[in-house]
Each structure stands twice: as structure tokens, then as C-alpha cells.
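COURSE: Structural Biology Practicum
ASSIGNMENT: Worksheet 4, Part C
STUDENT ID: 0417
INSTRUCTIONS: Below are two proteins. For each, the amino acid sequence is given first, followed by its C-alpha cell string. Answer the questions at the end about the second protein only.

PROTEIN I
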Amino acid sequence: MLFKIEQGLFTAEFTDYHAVLGVPVDAEPKDIRKHYLKLARRLHPDSCAKESESDRKRAAEFLSKMVNPAYEKLSDEKNYTEYQLLLKLKGQQALRQQDTIMLSSDVARKLATERGAIEAAYQNALKSLASEQYHHLDRTLELTGQISELNMIYLMRKASEGDMPAMGGPRPAQSAAAGTAATGSSPAATAAPTATAQKTAPTRESIVASYLRRAQEFENKQNYTAAIKELRDGLQIDPQNGTTHCRLGVVYMKANQATMAKIHFRKALEINPQDTVAQQGMKRLDPNNQSAAAAPQHNAPAKGAKTPPKSGKSEGGGLFGLFGGKKK
């Protein structure tokens, strides 16, 4: 996304598509589509005829570069399945890092102080922001960031309760449901496909493998920029995947970005000191350093190990201690 937003779930490698559209993270497909069509009408040039030229141009850019791409992501079944898992992991990651999170909006801070169930407060706060999101174009990015902070708080609370929200989005059962309306068949007929779809949900490993596969295809075509993007997206799913770090090292080396290649080769060796590809990559990049291929041993946690809390930090859980201490 060309517009820079740094609040909430947004990072250099991750876009909060729900926040862009102003819908909750557990919104149903029909509600996402309904709200998207409303935004598309609002931002269409014909709807902005009475506004200034600068506002018409800004509205067109928001529609083409933010709203349309976000809806394409959330309406595509394959992309959404991966994105759904990534959202869950984002919530868990934010919970682990809660001591370092700074909320920039009063509405997010208020939601963070809610006791007990926060579904109603979350929905009401988000709806209020979304109603203004694309009506004041000079504040659109600010309001989108605030909505993303609400999404982050909601996901963190659900992660702390061990109860991730049932995400909306495309499901195989959608077409079956449409068939029910057309033919009058019983709802029970569509229950089995839904259960089957839930049982066959992709694993983290299979999703990372798909990123690695696509990256290899781009690498074979010498499209290193696209390959790097796929691999970095894969690290969003599993940051401790040694294979992905190693492949990033290889691609960065081919792209003549030696510094980035070294970073990822070293990370690959932290995870797996016996990774021969990473060892060879380090030797090639730094042939005069005999220890370059050695895996760093200083306090490198084993895969899956928890990082010890920093001194001086409260162990009661950040963000006002509302999410509880870290699970043992």
C-alpha cells in the first residue's frame, strides 16, 4: 500500500485490510461487500462532483490504491485463508509484545480498559470511526490507523482468552448457501461441507510452503523483488522458519544486497547451525572471516523458546495489565 500508516496492525510488510474497509475483523462476507459498495459509491468521481479538484483526486486515489485492493484481498478465498491465519498470529504476537505497544488514540485506550467481554464496545467504537473514515479525506489515514488499533486490541484480548474470533470472509459453504436460497434445499445439506472445510484448514507449514514455492518461481524468472516480498510475507506467518531466512539470504545475494543477505544467513544459522546453504552463503560473502559461517551462540533462544522478560518491566501484562501475565 502506497499510503503510510503506522498504527495498530500496520507494518512495512502487513496491511490491515479490515481497517482500510472500516469493517470488524470478524465481519461476514455479505457485510464486507455491502460496506465496500458503499465506500465505492462515496469515493467514485461522479459522487465527488461538487467537491474540490484536490478532494476528487484524493478520493480516486483512496479508491484505487486502498479500498479496491483491500476488497480484492478479502473477497478472494485463497488469499483470505492465508490472511485469516496471519491475523490470528498478529494478535498473538501483539499480546506477547504488549509491554512495548503504544496506543495513539483515546478510543483505543478506552477499549483497552474495558473489563469483561469487549465485543459490543469494539463494534460500537469501530462503527463510529468507520462512519467518518472516508467523509473527511484529510483524516482518512488517521482514522484508518485508529480502526486498526481497535482491531489489534480486540485480537489481543481474544488471544489472551485463548478464543480467537470466528473470522468472516470467503468460505466454500458460501456457494452452497446461495444454492439453498435458489432451490429451497434444507440448511442441513450445507452443514457437512462447512465442517469439512474447517477440518481441512491449511496449516502454518503448508502456507509457508506456498510462499516458498511462489518465491522460487519468481527467483527462477530473476524477479528478485517479487521473490523477496513472498519470502518476507512468509516470515510474517512463521518468523522462526530457518528455510525462509536461508532462501532470503540467497535471493538477497543474487540481488547484490550483501548486508541483507548476511542478516538472513545469520538468522538461518541461529535456527539451524547445520544449514549448509547458509554456511556457504556466509563464506562466499565474507571469505576472510573464518568464523562468519558459525552460528551466533550468544543467548540465541531455541526455536519455540520464550524470550525472558526484560529487567525493569512488569510481568503483569502491558497495556494497563489488562491482558494478564504471560502464560506459563
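PROTEIN II
(use this one for the questions)
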Amino acid sequence: MLWRSVVGKLWMTILLLVSFVLGFVAILLSQFFRTYYVDMSEARLQKVATSVSELIEEGADVKTIENIAYKFSDPLSRIIIVEDGKEISSSPKQEGLVTLTMDDLKEDKELAAVFTDKKEIKNNIRKASNSRKNKNTENDIMIVGKPVQSKNQSAVFVYESLKVPIQGMERTTDFIFLSAGIAIILTTFFAFFLSTRITAPLRKMREVAFEVARGKFDAKAPMVSQDEIGELATALNQMGKQLKFNMNALQQEKEQLASILSSMADGVITLNQEGEVVVINPPAEHFLQVWQEEKEVELSKKLPSELVELFHLVVESEQQQVVEINLQKGNYVVLMTPLYNQTKIRGAVAVLRDMTEERRLEKMRQDFIANVSHELRTPMVMLQGYSEAILDDIVQTKEEINEFVQIIYDESVRLGKLVNELLDLARMESGNVELHIGEVDIHPFVEKIGRKFQGIAKDKEVALTVDFQNPIEQYPFDADRMEQVLTNLIDNAIRHTNAGGHVTLVIDTKNNGLTFEVRDSGAGIPEEDIPFLFDRFYKADKARTRGKKGGTGLGLAIAKNIVQGHDGKIAVSSVVGEGTTFSVYLPNRII
């Protein structure tokens, strides 16, 4: 509404102020002119009375006095001359003027005192009702009495109707109030124009302020003057510019923080004072999802009970707290620290670190140490035992000594093989083994491996065959290392295939690469053991090697590292009771 706006308020303020001032001035002027007209009438009557009184004292005759008096008197005034207490002369009666008689003068003590006590009266206003029962205020009179000092009970009375000064006063008052009304009307338009002009820049600045509030920081307020309003427009423009700079800086910091949080491997959760999630990054969301799926509960924006308890502990103790949460799909360590608003805790920040891989590696390290200790202890004990038997002359015959020496030799070879494979595997995992990749003739390479195992396969009564699916002459890889891989796979296949079974080495080209497959018809590998086959010292089914000469448990781990060194892949598929297939894929590498 207009009255609630700055224009309306300023307009009404100016209008009320001018109206009050003009009204006050009009009242003062009307009172001033009222007094002015009365004083003018009194002065004129006083002048006439004095002149007549002086003529009487000078001894002028009545006729001369009347002529001179009537000449100076107003047409609406009347003169009464009293001598020795009697009216000796009076001007003619005037229409509309109350006629005073000698009786009226005598009855009024104040008027009678003029000729009895030589007392002069001025500005004596008499109501017409006192003498003539006429209630019309226009018939009220003003009377002046001047005593004649040289004669007893003599005086001159001059009076006139107040109609003349009243009419002059009314005309003046009407003019004053008309002028005031016109001035108020003009002030109304001028005040509205002035307030509109003054507030126009303010309205524009209001629009600019709303634009800035909506994020449009390029909006500018016009500078229409160099006064306070112009300075306000300049300050508003500078504020918008500074806000734009600050908002851009905040946006950059926000994006930088979001980028950092998104790229962090650790999960981050920021909580407010009520324990509600304020900021969360993708790793933390993944943790909550895993926890929700495992616990089969709906979290929405709430936290797991473990984190809620940790948050309360952090707030109460005002200290950093650490807790480990173990789930089936992973292990997490949560580090929660309080956040302060000056001296008061305003929330907490939790860092969630996925320790699954670290725990797995730690377990592998422990298992590795245990397995190495176990694998080394067995040949060491056998070497020590059989050596002591020979040294203590427990064996006497040459055949027994030769048998013990042969056992010692076999175990020392096995021990040496184990140590070499451990060193070889360590070098591969550290990346210190260099592959010598070159063009290899496939047929001679495969035939060489086949001849190596023909004797062993014949002894085990296992059929060993080679199958070329797609003829290929040459392919780039490290011949020695790939021979080591295939040797390990074929050796495992023959050892775990019963008599009458078969082992097949299949060579194929697919997916722009070379594939070696070692298929056997052995006992197969349980499904739960397949994910761990390529771990160090892992042996799938101990029943597969029970009663047989087992390996070191490092062959498949070494084979995996060699294949990955060629940017290839090694996989296994098996059905218990039907057989197992190991496949090695080597992509075509440019030498």
C-alpha cells in the first residue's frame, strides 16, 4: 500500500507538517488582523473625539463643531456631545447603527463616569443586546468617551458599529484560509512529486538488493546524485561486487572440498550437534550401504548404533575416539574428533578407513611366515634326522646308507627349490624381474614342453595331448617364463589326474590374443577353494596330495605374477569329479 511505503510516509509527513504550519500561521494572522481592525477603528474614533473635545474647549459654537465633526466622522459612526449632563448635539441616526440616548449613557456607569468623573474610556465595546434587545453581533458597537476638561459634566462620545471591522476581518480571514488551502493543495502535489523523486533511487536500490539476494550479483544501482543516496548506491554496488567475489571464493572452496572428499580413499562423515549427518563422501556412503545390507535395517539419514555411541562418547569426553567395526564384507577403523565453535562443541567429524585389504595382507603375512616355517621345517628335520642316523652309525649296511643319502639329497633339492621359488616370487611381486619378450615359434615351444612330460605322463598312465585350434606361427612373449607357467600347470594336472585319465594342452587365438588351456580329467577343485588358488602356500584339497609327493604351494602364485607381467590373465574353472581347466590369455604386445 502507498501509505506503508517510503513515498507515502514522506508525502504524509510533508503534508501534515505544512498543514500544521499553515493552519497555525492562519490562526495567528486572523487574530492579528482582528486586533488590527479593532485598533484602527478605535484610533479613528479617538481622533474624532479628541478633535471635537478640543473645539469645545476652544469655545467654538455648536454649528461649527457639528460641521467639523461630521466631516471627520465615518458614515457608520455617530457623535454625541454632552454638556452640563445634557445632550446638546448628536449626529443623525444611521441605518444599521444602534442609537444611544442620554438615558443609555447615564444608565451605564462606565459611560456616565466620562462626564461626571472626567474619566476617558477607550475601546469600549457594547453589546447591542444591552440597549436594544438585538442579538445580531453586527449591531455591536465600539464607543469612545472623551471628557471636556474645561466644562462640568461635559463629554464627547463617538461610537460606530463593529460591522465594518468585522467585515474587513472576515474578508481577510477568508483570504488567509483560502490561501492556506491553496498552499496545502499545491504542497500535496509538490510533496508527492518531491517524495517520489527522492525515493525513486531508493526503490531502484531495493530492486537491486532483491536481485542480489537472488544471486544476481551483477545488478547495479544507478548513481543519480552525489549526496547520501548516491553514496548509498555506491556502497550497494560495492557490496554486490564483494558478495560476488566472496560467493565465487566460497563456491571454489566448496568445489575443492567436495573434490577432495570425493577423491579420498577414506570415508568422511561430518555430524552436527544433534548427531545428524551434514557432509558425507562416497566411501562413507559405501560403508553405510554395506552396514545397512549386512544388518538388514533402514538407515535413511541415521548412523549405525556403533557410530552413534562413539559420537556420544566424543561429545561427553571432548576427546578423539577410535573404534574398529568388523563386518562380513570388510573391516573398518573409525576415528572421530570433536568440532568446536569457539569453545563449544558444535559436532564431530568421523574418518572411516577401510582396513579390509590391510587385514588381509596382515593375515597373508602371518600365514606366509607360518607356511614358510612349516615348509622349511619339514625338510630341515628330515635332513637333520637322517644325517644324525648316519653319524651315529645307526645304519650299518651300504644299501641303507645309500638310501639315507638319497633321501637327504632329495630333501636338500626340495629345500633349494622352495628357497629359489620364494626368492623368485619376492622379486616378481616387487617388480624387479625383467621379462625378455620376443617372437617365439609356437610349435617348437609347445612340442618342447610336451616332450618334457611324456615320460611322467606315461609312468602315471595319463594321456598327454596337444591341440592346436587355430594355426599360428609366432607370438611375442618371454619363452622361459611362459615355459615355467605351463610346466607348473601341466605338472599339477598330471599329478592330480588318476591313471587312465587325460591331460590336454590347447592352443588357440581369440580376442586378438593367444590362449593356452590345460585341461585335465582329475578330481576337480571345490568351488570354495578356487578364489584362493593363486595365494602363496595354498593347497586346494589336501586329499588331492595325500600320499603323493606334493609341491611347495608357490607355483600358481608365481604363474599368476608371470602372466600379469605380460598384461595377461589367468583363470580356472573346475567341476568336482569331472576335471579342471586352467586358461592363460596373453594379449598381442608390440615389441
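ANSWER KEY EXCERPT:
Q1: The longest helix spans residues 6-57.
Q2: The domain at 438-587 is CATH 3.30.565.10 (Heat Shock Protein 90).
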